[in-house]
Structure formats: C-alpha cells, structure tokens
Design a protein that fits this description.
The protein contains 6 helices and 2 strands; from the N terminus they run αααααββα. Helix content is 66%, strand content 12%. It starts with a helix and ends with a helix.
Length: 131
C-alpha cells in the first residue's frame, strides 16, 4: 500500500469515527459529492494541499492521515543552497522492530546452514566408509 492509499484509508476511517458522511465532507470542502467520492476512492489524485484541508476538517494532524498502523512517519525539511530537501523516515521503535525481525530471520538461516552442513558431513562420513 503506497502512502496515498494509506491516506485515503485513514481519511475514511477518521471520517467514519467522527460520524461524517461523504456528503458532509464534500460540503465542508466546498466540492460536490462525486468529486469527494473520487478523492476517497482513489479515482482522483489526492494532493498534499487537499490532504491538509481534509485533515483540518477531520481535526487531525496530516501525519495521522499518512500513518500506517504501527508505522510512524516523520518528515524533515531542510533548506539547502539548491532549495528544500525533504526526508521521510520512520520512528526508532519501528526501525528497532524491523531490525529485530531481520536478526531473527538471520538466526534461522544460520541454523539452517548448520543443519545442512551437519547433514553433508554425515553423508561424507558414510561415503568415506564405503570406499
């Protein structure tokens, strides 16, 4: 799921939690219902300006609309001589969970390699005895 798919999912979730209908959102955003439905469904591209307007209507930070469950997104904007540089990242907790999962996966691979090596050694010992 890309970040705008996540945003559309979260918009719908927040809208429903607030008890708002799509028509209510369309009215608050000064657009017709079909245009709003197209934004929420993904038929029309959701840009950052519109996302900010929707966040205001839903009284939630824009970041909450971009956040996947369990993933916390932050954005750094730095001014350089070439203009602005945007950096998206994930919070330390999520990074640590990803690293722990990779460590566990690596341990499983090490165990599998050891098992296969032992089997090869056993086979080689059997072959050596027959010669």
């Amino acid at each position: 799921m890309d970040i705008m798919d996540t945003a559309r999912f979260n918009i719908k979730k927040h809208r429903e939690q607030k008890g708002l209908r799509q028509q209510d959102m369309a009215d608050k955003l000064n657009m017709n219902i079909r245009s709003y439905q197209n934004l929420e469904s993904g038929a029309t591209k959701l840009d950052l300006e519109r996302l900010a307007q929707i966040a205001d209507v839903l009284e939630t930070p824009t970041e909450d609309l971009l956040r996947q469950d369990g993933v916390y997104i932050h954005q750094e904007i730095r001014e350089t001589s070439n203009g602005f540089v945007y950096h998206y990242g994930i919070e330390e907790e999520m990074l640590n969970r990803l690293l722990a999962a990779k460590d566990a996966e690596n341990q499983l691979l090490r165990d599998e390699i050891k098992y296969l090596k032992d089997k090869i050694d056993q086979f080689m010992a059997m072959v050596g005895k027959k010669e």
